[in-house]
Amino acid sequence: MTGKNSITGNSKFKMPGRILLCSPYTSILNQAAYDAWHSNDNGPKLFSHSKIEEVIGNLKKTDDETIRFDYEKTFKGKNIPNDSELVIHTTYNQILNISYEELATQDYITIDECHSLSDGIDYRATLIAEVISYLIEFVRRKVDATTKIIFMSGTPNVETHVVQDLLQEYELDHLYQRVIVNKKYKNQPIVNIRHLDTNNGEQRSNAVIEQIHKYYKRGRKVVHIFNYKEKMDKYVREIQSKLDADIKVGLFYSGSKGVCRDNILKGKFGDFDVILTTTYFINGININKDGITEDDFLAGESSKQEYGVVIDLGKTHTKINASDAVQAINRFRNRKCYATIFFPKLFRTDHYNTNRKFDYNYAGKIILGINKYNNHLLSVNKNLEAVTKEDKEVEEDIAFLDKIRNNPSQINYYDIRNYQKKTEKIRDIINRLEKKKSIYEDWLCSLDGYHFMTTDAGFLSVIFEGHINEPLPEMTEDQLALENQVIRNFLDNDDALLFLSNQMDIEKRFLVRASNAIKDPFSTKIGNFEAVDIKNNKFIFEGDFHVSHESAINKLIRNHLQFTYWYDPDKVLEILRYLINPEVKLLPITTNSYLKKITSYLKSFKVFKSFNCKDGMNYLIFLDYLADKNLGIIKKISPTYISYTNTNTDVDFKEIWALMQKQKTSYLIDHSHNSIKDYLKEHTKNDELMKKMDLEKLDNQLHRLSIYKPLKYAKTGDIKSYENITIPRILRSDKMILALNDYEYDVEEPENCTYDESKIEFESVWKRLSIRLETYLNSELRANHIHLNTIYNTLKDFIDEKNFQKLSNYINTLLSDSKKNALPVVTEVIQKLKKDLKTINTFLLTACKAVDYNTYKNLKHKIPMKFITQTLFCEEDFQLATINKRFKANLKKINQYDVYNSLFKNSKKYKNSTRLSVHTPKGRVTINSANHEAAKITRPAYLVLDDVGKLLYADFSAEETCSFLCSYAYSNNSFEMKDGSIPTKIYNKGIYNPSTFLNDYFANSSDSKTISNYNIKVYNVNLLDYRKFADAKKRKKK
Asked: What residue spans define the domains of the chain?
């Protein structure tokens, strides 16, 4: 059935009484709000969702226009009007904000498009389970209420079984009733189910585009459900370039803006020929006003426009089941709709059993929807036992752990118990839904399922074999390059810059849309901006550019507005232009997209400013504190980023941090005034669970605060890459500094521990190690075993230097050296010392506590945190203009004779032969003063420079140059990469292997494979000059 929502919410047709009408998506509410605004239905209505004010702003033609219905952004803490005929339009989640008492005042609670409770289990399971649980609990608690709950759908799914089962368990199943309404229709949609026998993505896309074209040429408006927002702009260009540049393509998805979105909420496609959409379109939207006016519609006239729906099930991002397809077709209320469903390749090769003609299991799944959960129902073998999807256990956690750490005195027993019961109920409902859904989900996507469901919906289903036609013209243009050029052109346009600079004035905010003057989908032209409208207090400017760039330009405008809040307009423009400069790396990220670079620039600052990642921030401060303690934490400071690389795998710093969190929890509970502190101790006693929760939370926060790359191991078990944390540094502003102190911080004081205490503990660790070394390898023992002297002296040097990393590495080297292990006493002594190394953990734990307490003290008393300003922001005197010069060796500063000296020392080439001749394009040429051609001949030499441009080595051989650099970096400063990472340091392995370096790193432009602290540059050596130098050098030696 269709039109359920419209009837339920219309005061002329609705059932008498108060109605709470709940929808899964805001788009349904927004269209209902549009209808209510323009209809002559004057019944009492209330609309509620978080962005309803924006919707009203779009509906109002003038600021003083009367709002035609009541509205609320949320029902949390709000009283609902008591009008006896009130209709409330809201979303599923708002049900949870309405008390049971308020729900009991409703005559009807309608859950519209209730099949979404099953369909949405993959991406919002918790919310769905909470809504079902809340409604069941309402029925159980308010048994005397006369409220009727209606689960309403044109394509009901397994949620109806789950609700019935739950009511039965509460012995309330007598309240459950199933009502089926059959409707007869004048028009019958036709669904062409077409098998497309290919897995080739380009062929499938061409088939879809050709089908869109067929519908378009027949005068049908087409919707293609294309569940991939990020690729939609490219797909617009593809349709127009392969078919016709005059085809007008619109986009509709959650969060979309513009004319297309407005048209659909008005119930029409309008001027758009093709709409690319996501599953956001398939529920509750009415398309019924194309070709007619609002007055015509209110007078009962029906639209005569015909439509087409195209779905390709062969793409992973367009997995639309039969129920969703029926819903999509039913959006067109006149039912003048054809649909084409492209099915995946049915018969593919069975790689596990090549004797078969095709993969039986896969074909059975695609054709009949057979899987292990429904095999017993669909198989001819009736003796098969049913396989049931196993229940997932309630994921164990410690309820209110953060609240206990912040303010243990404010936690009560009932909050914890209620949370635990609620969690169990939610998990139970999710399990029930998933268990039921597992039986049907593959069938609903199968050929059989599609044919049955579309026929059952009253459609004509036609199954046929499709053909692969001649390929359409390929799009050879680089799509990202097109977008980047449009962004650059926009920032170079004087009119656009004027609008951008003015938009800090709230009365001059604006959005941009395409004027349709530019038809070429590959055009990057942009200009001729003109104000054409004002909506929601924003000017609408039209500009000449291709429509496919509309969303990108408006993203740029929104980002620019954020930038201008923190920086003055000139500085913003300077930052934006450096961000889109391909020759400059202002951010340590690998994307080539200008828009992504711009969007990412303020990301870290926003997270730091909110202080809701305090644990991750403390961990970074902890690493920073350890960076100068020779513990294996390597800190790299670059003008535009700071990175920390943990090269010490013998110490688990995160384990220490988690232990501090555990001890902090115990301390705060012990010192709280809560009468249930004993219960809280019992509640938080699971150390392993607490550690698991804390480490998961820490990793999540590190990903938000930085570019985080965890420790990785290769398949061989060797370390592939060390843990690396890179924090982008941004230009500072006074506003940003002030914002970092604008927060509320109300937590209990943790254990008092200072940095001075940690320093005392640090010295104590080394003192103990020194004493242990003297005990284990005393002078008498060394006198009896001479081989111990070298070991003792090396160990003592490292202990005196307080260099834990070198000490640990040396001990590990000794233990892995079979020859040294065979010597008397060595293994026994070294094993003892290795065990003693763990005493460093006492210092690390104290340091952790000191960091935590210092952060508490700073936040509590609003003391600016130097770590944040020094880490998050570039240096105060940093100038963007200098960024091009960083990390580049200036060869003009290299003395030619320094190069010649190094070449003479390291290479035999071109210096030893009596008569030097070389190959040239013209043949062999003798290098001597008499030959004028010789004076022009050069050969490349490879120079190794350090990060300040000092010459370290020169050679005519790239292989020998790489060999030298690998050896040098291993013995001196380790390799550091441009992305801030530090590769694993193993002699003659990985990057330290000359052959690997030459093949994988020498000429690689990727930041993860380009070294930043050394440079290899090509220097063209004039052979005649060099030969004269070499000959003179040889004569001197004689």
From this structure: 4-175, 190-343, 370-444, 479-601, 606-741, 755-843, 887-1037
Helices in 244-315 by DSSP H: which ranges?
Answer: 259-265, 294-298
Give Cβ neighbours of residue 576 (< 8 Å, ≥ 6 apart). Answer: 491, 560, 563, 598
- Supply 441's token pair: 């989900």
Contact of 518 with 545, CB cutoff 8 Å: yes
Model pLDDT for residues 789-845, shown as the tens digit of each residue: 999 999 999 999 999 999 999 998 888 888 887 777 888 888 999 999 999 999 999
Which pLDDT tens digit goes with each residue over 889-940?
A: 456 678 888 999 999 999 988 887 777 877 665 567 788 877 777 777 888 8
Decide: 1030 and 911 in contact? Cβ < 8 Å. Answer: yes
Tokens, residue 716: 């061989």
Q: Please, what is the end-to-end C-alpha distance for the chain in angstroms? A: 105
E strand residue ranges, 729-857: none
Instruction: Find the helix or strand (DSSP H, E) in which 636 lies.
Output: strand 633-637
| Nearest alpha carbon to residue 999 among 1008, 1007, 1009, 986 | 1009
Strand partners, 462: 192
The predicted model gives 500-522 an average pLDDT of: 85
Distance CA 310, CA 288 (A): 19
The set of residues, in sequence order, having a beta carbon less than 8 Å from that of 124 and lying 6+ positions away, is none
Coil, strand or helix: which one is 75? Answer: coil
H or E stretch including 151?
strand 148-152
Cβ neighbors of 606 (< 8 A, separation 6 or more) are none
Q: What are phi and psi of 11, to 5 degrees?
A: -65, -20
Closest C-alpha to 641, from 727, 534, 515, 550: 727
CA–CA distance, 637 with 934 (Å, rounded to integer) = 47
Strands 274-277 and 249-252: parallel
Q: Which helix (H) or strand (E) holds 235?
A: helix 232-242
Q: What contacts 701, CB < 8 A, 6 or more positions away?
A: 613, 615, 616, 617, 619
Find the angle CA(904)-CA(909)-CA(912) to the nearest 5 degrees: 80
For the record, the structure tokens of 215 come out as 């519908």
Q: What is the DSSP letter of 11?
A: T
Taking each continuous run of H as one helix and of E as one strand, the counts in the chain are 40, 27
Return the CATH number of 4-175, one of 3.40.50, 1.10.10, 1.25.40, 1.10.150.
3.40.50
pTM across the whole model: 0.80
Which of helix, strand or coil describes residue 722?
coil
Residues 6 or more apart whose Cβ sits within 8 Å of residue 597 = 579, 580, 586, 587, 589, 591
For the purposes of burial, counting CB atoms within 10 Å of the CB of 598, is it exposed (0-12), middle (13-18) or buried (19 or more)? Answer: buried
> Would you give the DSSP letter of residue 633?
E
Spatial neighbors of 37 by CB under 8 A, at least 6 apart, are 59, 68, 69
User: Quick one: which of 966, 1022, 1012 has its CA closest to 989?
Assistant: 966
Strand extents, DSSP E, 849-922: 917-920
- Taking the CA atoms of 680, 683, 687 and 689 in sequence, report the sign of the dihedral they define: negative
Distance CA 249, CA 519 (A): 12
Contact 16, 247 (CB under 8 A): no
Which candidate, 1030, 815, 835, 811, places its Cα nearest to that of 941? Answer: 1030
Dihedral sign of CA atoms 148, 153, 154, 160 in order: negative
| Angle, in degrees to the nearest 10, between helices 687-705 and 653-670 | 120
Burial group, residue 504, by CB count within 10 angstroms (0-12, 13-18, 19+): middle
CATH of domain 190-343: 3.40.50.300
pLDDT for 907 equals 92
The whole-angstrom separation of Cα 121 and Cα 112 is: 16
Do 279 and 227 form a contact (C-beta atoms < 8 A)?
yes
**Angle at Cα 463 formed by Cα 457 and Cα 465, nearest 5°?**
155
